[in-house]
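agent> Task received from the user: take the single chain below, predict its 3D structure, and emit structure tokens. No templates, no multimer pairing.
agent> Plan: (1) validate residues, (2) run structure prediction, (3) serialize to tokens, (4) report one or two observations.
agent> Step 1 OK, no nonstandard residues flagged.
tool_call: predict_structure(input=
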Amino acid sequence: MQRYLTRYAEPRAQGLFLQATAALQEKQYERCVVVPMYDEPTSAVERIFQGVAGTDTLAIVVVNAPEDAPRRAYTASLELVSSIARSAPIDVFTVDCVSTPLPAATAVGEARKIGSDIALYLHTAGLVKSPWLYQTDADAQLPADYFDTHLPRKGAVVFGHTHHSPDPSVQRAADLYDLHMAYYVAGLSWAGSPFAYPTLGSTIAVHSDSYASVRGYPKRNAAEDFYLLNKVAKVHGVTHIPHLVIQLLARPSHRVPFGTGPALEKIVEDLHTDPSAQFYKSYHWSSFQLLHRALNLLANFADAPEKFEADQVWASQANNPAQQLLLKLGFERASRHLFRQYKQAQQRHRSLREWFDAGKTLRFVHAARHYHPDQPLLRTVGQLPPSITGQLPQHFASRPLERSPNRSKSDG
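)
tool_result: status=success, residues=412
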């Protein structure tokens, strides 16, 4: 951790750590939660932490704005800096990344990294006991048992979630989006992928050792949570804990280039045209069957790579879609490197897991559309066996995706 703090932590984080130490009068906390906030109402802080009020917890709130922020959003964020601590039900250390805005191309990831680096400094100084760096967002409401769950020795954890909205149209869109995410994770799990977990920055906790070992959050304006978890999964693993459910506000928006907000906005718009939701497509289940075969192929290669070295073996598999998709991802070149580099099967298994990571897994499933185009999500889920649908979060059972009241019986 000291090497990370010395060489890779954000330069401003050390000075902010000293400010935090002075402001908090060296009080010791059991744990801390990092929350980036941009263009949010002051009431958001109370909503986030009301479930864990009274716990021995420090919130590190990084109020930030990108350099290209609209004037209204910039002003709202600046006001938030001075008012946030007064409305919080737990102790808060506020970080001002508004007065000096963050680069637009890196703002989201940089805000998370600054807050997490401060938390890491506080932990190494003994001012925060828990080695776990809890992460959430301004759209979250943490449950009362948030800190009660047993966590693994290292790595990262991803808690369960559900989106909610008082607007029925937005709620229906959120249910579809959550179902899509849960279906993807269930498909990866069925196929045997080690990357079967959702990636939402509001639902993550990462061990300080693991965080430091992968050099913290990447400074990206989107998908920083995906890439952090991808790196941690390769070194210490990621554990999915779906039974602890964090409530998230469903908020259509375009504040980031992709993710939940833009997806919800598009789904709400399309639901007005097609209330049956048959427009909403997701991966064909056969794509996960191809993934399962590909993972078996990789495992077989790791056990006996010599069988895959001959060119005639590659040629004989020309009609094998799983292998063809792997070839498109660069497997032939990677396999020859592994064959020369590693003599032990265990080394090859580990190296192949690092090569065929969460990013390549997602690219594989996307490329599988060439053989199996997407189909309506509701139809797909309705055709799956209970062994698969049973892996979907329980809130889908308690709040099913109802047929739109605007849809006639003749729609089928």
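agent> Step 4: summary for the user.
Strands lie at 31-37, 57-66, 91-102, 132-135, 140-141, 156-164, 204-207, 238-249, 281-282, 375-376.
agent> Done.
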